[in-house]
Design brief:
five-stranded mixed β-barrel; six-stranded mixed beta sheet; Trna Endonuclease, Chain: A, domain 1; globular
Length: about 240
């Protein structure tokens, strides 16, 4: 998928209050950009790092710039957490993974309880009834943290993430299909593992979910300066 246009480059000064970052553009101007990521962005916030921003001149917007990617070492790291769901949907429609190929329909933000939604639901048809084949529910997570060549999730303790794993296990108990898809928005990782040092409960639940039958799929991204897309060859998962 193409990133929003136009794009601008700058260098990170600092991130603060979670959703803001001060960035120096190439002409020396210092601007404040929106950071579309609620995580800690651990390991991605070194002062002076090269950044790619999207630019929107809509006068109704409070901030003209949105931070999209940060350069970390030799890799671009995508920080926009709204992209992974779009990337997974695009992959489903263009190059579906083998275990997705029997499904014909995709729905977004599907309510599974009065209080909870799951990111995506794959089904064989639009109408769900008692005689319908089991659906396949997918929760998508954006991954920016890495230790060496191993991608890690989460980058901060996440009760919400723990809840999603419990919900996916409950769906398996109901006879449905369930899957965690981790989108690695960086190009320097070869394997994936839960970040036990940051959130040991999450790692425990992920291993429990995998044993119960929740599929764990880790998909790396590629970035060419204008577009970002998912590779259809999953990374090795180490649980």
């Amino acid at each position: 998928m193409n990133l929003p246009k136009p794009l601008a480059e700058g260098r990170l000064i600092k991130r603060y209050k979670r959703f803001f970052a001060d960035i120096e553009l190439g002409n020396g101007e210092i601007i404040t950009a929106h950071v579309p990521n609620t995580g800690s962005l651990k390991g991605c916030l070194e002062e002076g790092s090269l950044c790619i921003l999207s630019v929107n001149d809509d006068p109704r917007r409070k901030l003209k710039y949105t931070l999209q990617l940060i350069r970390v070492g030799k890799s671009w790291v995508g920080v926009n957490t709204s992209l992974p769901n779009q990337l997974v949907e695009e992959l489903f429609h263009t190059h579906p993974l083998p275990h997705w190929q029997d499904f014909k329909c995709l729905q977004r933000e599907v309510k599974i309880t009065p209080q909870s939604r799951i990111d995506l639901r794959l089904s064989h048809n639009h109408t769900a009834g008692e005689d319908s084949p089991p659906a396949h529910f997918i929760e998508v997570k954006n991954v920016t943290l890495a230790e060496g060549t191993q991608a890690k999730f989460p980058d901060a303790p996440t009760e919400r993430g723990q809840k999603h794993l419990l919900e996916l296990m409950a769906l398996v108990d109901q006879g449905q299909g369930a899957e965690m898809v981790y989108v690695i928005q960086r190009q320097d990782c070869q394997t994936f593992s839960p970040a036990d040092a940051i959130d040991p409960k999450y790692g425990q639940l992920l291993r429990q979910a995998a044993k119960k039958g929740v599929r764990v799929t880790v998909l790396p991204t590629e970035f060419d300066g204008k577009s970002i897309w998912l590779k259809d060859q999953p990374l090795e998962t180490i649980l």
